[in-house]
Design goal:
Keywords: Methyltransferase, Transferase
Helix content: 40-55%
GO molecular function: methyltransferase activity
Number of helices: 14
InterPro entries: SAM-dependent_MTases_sf
Mean pLDDT: 94
Shape: globular
CATH class: Alpha Beta
Radius of gyration: 20 Å
CATH topology: Rossmann fold
Strand order of the largest sheet: 1-11-12-9-8-5-6-7
Protein name: Class I SAM-dependent methyltransferase
Pfam families: Methyltransf_23
């Protein structure tokens, strides 16, 4: 039976996301810059997840990017490729400093806050699922792929796990994470190294937290993971084709979080099920919670601030909506329509 969980309060992270509210112009400009780079890449002809041929006509266009829904698995695909040039521009140019800006912390105290509020809940969920599977988490080995600045690695260590390593392509993030963690558990790898590592790393649990959607070759990665006899569980957190997309479409002057920059495609429950069936994955844990309502809240606040004569409504809106935000989000989460899913899979061979 799948271990399933719903909901998480926005208050846990609200003060960590203030820049998205206060610096909308900067983040929107950044999103549009990468949209221009992405649309200059070759056309995508096959679904990112099931590899079926894609329709040639877009389902919709957002910030100049055409998107199409796969007719086989319902995965939402951007209609251009995540080429080497695009991935290098997003993740590794200037040592990855631009990409790291959205996820980094200014000092040690901020690093700890981010680890505690965002990543330790993710780590606890993984451990809860493993215990539900009658596994001792402390006896297992963990490899975090696309570890960034090591927040998830640090969270696992904070919960008492010692056999933990992280692998990351951004030099600036590896340097920050290893400075924050005395054990220096992060290794710098090249963009092309991930596939070989997934085949060979002696890890019982392989994690991709906010990473799987950024991979150029998710199908090859899943094949490599399945061919690695050591890997028994895979943990992913991925963005979903969810109601928040429509929010982004009707507020085009607000910085998009769900479908922007490195998010060139979005999952559906059906596309994940297709992935499970093809690559021998059994879903043993799922945590549905999203930021749909927080993103709607942000969109209204930013729009009020941008509109002459409406700034006086910012605080009344904040007072009214924040009181009901979690309740509204939980309705979406329990319908499994949230903007992201955390899922743990057992690897079947």
């Amino acid at each position: 039976m799948t271990f399933e969980k719903f909901g998480k309060s926005f208050r846990d992270i609200a003060d960590l996301k203030t820049s998205f509210f206060e610096d909308n112009g900067k983040w929107l400009e950044r999103a549009l810059k990468y949209a221009a780079i992405y649309t200059a890449q070759p056309r995508r002809t096959h679904c990112k997840i099931c590899n079926a041929p894609l329709p040639g006509t877009p389902s919709f266009v957002k910030h100049t990017i055409p998107y199409v829904i796969c007719t086989r698995c319902s995965h939402l695909n951007g209609m251009h490729e995540d080429s080497d040039a695009f991935c290098e521009a997003v993740y590794t140019s200037d040592e990855g400093k631009d990409y790291a800006e959205a996820y980094s912390s200014a000092d040690a105290a901020a690093y700890v806050r981010r680890r505690e509020r965002i990543y330790e809940p993710k780590a606890r969920f993984l451990l809860d699922v493993l215990r539900h599977e009658n596994k001792d988490p402390a006896a297992l080995r963990y490899a975090d792929m696309g570890a960034g600045a090591g927040y998830f690695v640090a969270a696992l260590q904070e919960l008492g796990l010692t056999q933990v390593a992280g692998y990351e392509v951004g030099q600036a993030q590896v340097a920050l994470g290893n400075w924050m963690m005395p054990s220096a558990p992060l290794s710098l790898i090249g963009l092309k190294d991930t596939l070989g590592l997934c085949r060979e790393i002696p890890a019982d649990v392989m994690t991709f937290i906010g990473v799987f959607e950024h991979l150029q070759n998710p199908r090859e990665i899943l094949g490599a993971v399945r061919s690695n006899p050591a890997v028994r569980y895979v943990y992913i957190c991925v963005p979903m084709f969810a109601p928040t997309i429509y929010n982004e479409m009707v507020f085009p002057q607000v910085m998009p979080r769900q479908l922007a920059v490195g998010h060139t495609h979005l999952f559906t429950d059906a596309s994940i099920r297709n992935m499970e069936a093809e690559f021998g994955l059994e879903r043993v844990g799922a945590w549905w919670f999203g930021t749909d309502m927080m993103d709607y809240h942000r969109s209204v606040l930013v729009s009020l601030a941008q509109t002459p004569g409406q700034a006086g409504m910012i605080e009344p809106w904040r007072e009214q909506f924040e009181d009901i935000l979690d309740d509204l989000q939980l309705v979406i989460d329990k319908k499994r329509k949230s903007s992201q899913i955390h899922a743990v899979f057992k690897v079947r061979r």
